[in-house]
Specification:
With 725 residues, the protein is α/β, with parallel strands linked by helices. The protein folds into four domains: 3-112, no CATH class; 131-254, 3-Layer(aba) Sandwich (Rossmann fold); 271-505, Serine Threonine Protein Phosphatase 5, Tetratricopeptide repeat (Alpha Horseshoe), CATH 1.25.40.10; 520-722, Tetratricopeptide repeat domain (Serine Threonine Protein Phosphatase 5, Tetratricopeptide repeat). Helix content is 62%, strand content 6%. The strands form two sheets. Strands 3, 4, 5, 6, 7 and 8 form a six-stranded mixed β-sheet that branches. A two-stranded antiparallel ribbon has the order 1-2. Helix 10 (289-305) runs antiparallel to helix 11 and helix 29 (638-650) runs antiparallel to helix 30. The protein is elongated, with a radius of gyration of 34 Å.
């Protein structure tokens, strides 16, 4: 018999086939176990090596030995008539067929079972095909000490994919929200509205590191591509650069991207400093005051270790601004001090790295907050050019653009932002507010509801639900009751100020006993509303002296002088501070992030009372122009209706003033109790329509107060505050 025939007779080929298929299945099991239970990085390689060594051994045994009813015997000692290799071959054929079926099933099952066959999961097929989320790579190292390395790879890939033309990349906040959560990838894809997910893991052993990455199709959970990379931790940043570039090349092919930018090398620093920086950056993303205070400590330590590490300076500047006591911020650091340090840190960062996107973003925020909108827009656009997925830069740019009155454009930008990152809370908040300003209540509600459905933070769920009840449904009491289920200790000062504002809408002032400290910029009005206008005026002046470059401090002082009727003092202040120039007044009081015109009406009333008719007329013209600009940009808000009502009341067009006041009431369900005791409405106090509207407003307020258990208000409330006019 020929050698080939003898190989067939002795089942050598059958043994080779069975061994190969079963060996492949064992390798898959080994890889899965290694990933699932955190076995050492060498485990799957060890299994492959054993199988490779065993293959020729199995073939030699198949040739030299035969299985008989009496046990295993050498083939040469068995007569041909006694051999049962044919029967053994038939059994091996069955084993081979079963093994092949398992092999085929392992390859095809993910393709066959789509989300329609898996109850409770929604396919991501509706998402754009060129869309992806980069989940944080899991640290599976025995010591759990490679998290900074894993996060670095994830974020680097996310940033570069965001630069690919036509590619939608889920934002960092939402992607990293799934860190450490063992959730179905198809459900994650549904929440983030992406067609693909890139995930992976990092496992280190000694000085070696293994990175596994895989690209998954959300619609059916099928693995489009996976790869494993091995490297040496002696230069962790070089390994990170190499792996990230190789993953990008592979993904470029899988996602059929024609052109993709190359990854810039990661900025080198001390490994310990890098870990501190990454931890601090995560804490800043939360906007939690306590977390951001810890971030400052971590960044201070990182800078001590490496004074030349630019990203640490930029992040520290961001934390300082966000922890300031300015409106829109989250902390209590005196802005006079925190902004000086933040500006220094930004310039230090850009001096070390002229292309650092985060530094330009913070520079934009500082300029926006201090009324330098043009400078802010330039810096923020540069930040987005350098890092298209910079969520903070996109959010702050939208707010800076609001100063031009283009609220439809602002709302559209914010809507696009939360579509990229539905869990980015600052963007969610602003998208709700600006959608309401342009009258798009459906979008405002959808943005809020999507956030509520996606977040796992129960406190944030409550606060957002409370916001929707307050701003959209007009259910202020219900909003307050819901919000008070959350301790003031665990939320930031911005949210606590919103709660205080809800109480004040209902005239709950002396009765309010909230423990949260009010933002310093609002303290002057707090005193006025508590019946102590002189203290309010003194606080406002002190705030101006402490923050001479902050437009909002001046606006509050001007507003209180106007409300108290101290016209001569207000005009003297105008001439002293702005040299009697409305152009200087407009420039210095141009708002940063609240999209309101400078306080023209307050100044106009004072100018008219002291006989400055020309300047009075110019101030009123400027206010009319500002209102018209906002109206042209889509602003239909209650606030703009109130501006209109005050404008027409000042010039004596009472019918028009009352029309806008009634329009505001119809939109808001109820108006702030103090809106009816503002000085511009003095000419309306005896108008029957004004009196009727005021009574209707009190009725609505009392309905809400009753829900909270407070006594009803009477018109005596107004008499008390009208006496201050």
């Amino acid at each position: 018999m020929s050698l080939l025939g003898e190989l067939k007779r002795r089942n050598v080929f059958r043994i080779a086939g069975v061994y190969s298929v079963v060996g492949w299945l064992l390798v898959q099991v080994a890889a899965s176990l290694e990933e699932a239970v955190g076995l050492p990085a060498w485990f799957d390689g060890f299994v492959v090596s054993l199988l490779a060594i065993g293959f020729p051994v199995a073939l030699v045994i198949a040739w030299a030995f035969e299985l008989t009813p009496d046990g295993i015997k050498r083939t040469v000692s068995i007569d041909a008539d006694e051999s049962i290799t044919a029967q053994t071959g038939s059994k091996l054929d069955i084993v081979l067929v079963l093994a092949l079926l398992l092999f085929t099933g392992a390859m095809l099952v993910p393709k066959l079972f789509n989300s329609e066959q898996l109850p409770g999961l929604v396919a991501g097929s509706a998402a754009a095909e060129a869309s992806i989320a980069v989940l944080p790579f899991a640290d599976l190292s025995p010591g759990g000490d490679q998290e900074y390395f894993a996060d670095g790879i994830s974020e680097e890939l996310l940033n570069v994919l965001a630069k690919v033309s036509g590619m939608k990349v889920a934002g960092r906040t939402s992607s990293f929200a799934f860190k450490g959560r063992n959730e179905d990838l198809r459900e994650i894809g549904r929440v983030l509205d992406v067609a693909h997910i890139l995930e992976g893991s990092v496992r280190s052993q000694g000085n070696k590191v293994r990175v596994t990455a895989q690209l998954i199709q959300v619609s059916d959970g099928f693995h489009l591509w996976s790869e494993t990379y091995d490297g040496d931790l002696s230069d962790i940043f070089a390994v990170q650069d190499d792996i990230a570039n190789r993953i990008l090349v592979a993904m470029k092919s899988q996602l059929q991207v024609e052109e993709a930018p190359t990854l810039a090398p990661v900025q080198r620093t001390d490994v310990t400093a890098y870990g501190l920086f990454l931890e601090a950056r995560d804490l800043i993303f939360t906007r939690d005051p306590a977390g951001m205070e810890r971030a400052l400590d971590l960044l201070n330590r990182a800078i001590e270790i490496d004074p030349s590490y630019a990203p640490a300076y930029a992040s520290r500047a961001k934390a300082l601004v966000l922890l300031s006591d300015r409106p829109g911020s989250y902390g209590k650091l005196p802005a006079k001090e925190s902004f000086v340090q933040a500006k220094t840190d930004v310039e230090q960062a850009l001096g070390l790295d002229a292309d650092l996107a985060d530094a330009y973003a913070v520079r934009g925020l500082i300029n926006s907050d201090t009324g330098r909108a043009d400078y802010a827009i330039t810096a923020l656009r540069r930040a987005i050019e350098l890092s298209p997925n910079s969520l903070d830069a996109r959010n702050w740019l939208a707010l800076a653009l609001a100063n031009d009155g283009r609220l439809r454009d602002v709302a559209a930008q914010l809507k696009a932002l939360v579509d990229i990152d539905p869990l980015y809370k600052p963007g969610v908040n602003n998208a709700i507010l600006y959608s309401i300003d342009i009258g798009d209540l459906d979008t405002a509600r959808r943005v809020g509801e999507r956030f509520i459905a996606a977040t796992r933070d129960e406190t944030e769920k409550v606060i957002t639900r409370s916001t929707l009840l307050y701003l959209i449904d007009g259910k202020i009491a219900e909003s307050i009751k819901l919000r008070e289920t959350v301790s003031e200790v665990v939320v930031n000062s911005l949210d606590n100020s919103s709660l205080r504002s809800a109480y004040y809408d209902l005239g709950v002032i002396e009765e309010y006993s909230g423990s949260a400290e009010i933002l310093s910029i609002f303290k002057p009005w707090e005193s006025v509303r508590r019946g102590d206008p002189q203290t309010g005026k003194e606080l406002a002046l002190a705030t101006v002296e402490e923050n001479p470059d902050y437009y909002a401090a001046h606006a509050v002082y001007i507003g209180i002088l106007a409300q108290l009727g101290q016209d001569r003092e207000l005009v003297d202040y105008f001439e002293r501070e702005y040299r009697g120039s409305l152009e200087a007044y407009a420039t210095r009081l141009r708002p940063g992030v609240n999209a309101d015109p400078p306080p023209y009406l307050e100044l106009a009333m004072a100018l008219r009372e002291v006989g400055e008719q020309r300047l009075y007329e110019e101030a009123m013209q400027r206010m009319r122009f500002a209102i018209d600009i906002f109206r042209a940009g889509g602003d239909v808000s209650v606030g703009r209706d109130m501006d209109e009502a005050q404008y027409w009341a000042i010039i004596g067009a009472n019918d028009k003033a009352l029309g806008f006041l009634e329009q505001a009431f119809a939109k808001a369900s109820l108006l702030n109790i103090f809106d009816f005791v503002t000085r511009p409405f003095e000419p309306l106090l005896q108008e029957p329509r004004f009196i009727s509207l005021r009574e209707a407003n009190i009725k609505r307020i009392n309905e809400e107060r009753n829900i909270l258990g407070y006594k009803p208000l009477t018109t005596a409330f107004y008499d008390r505050y009208a006496s201050m006019l």
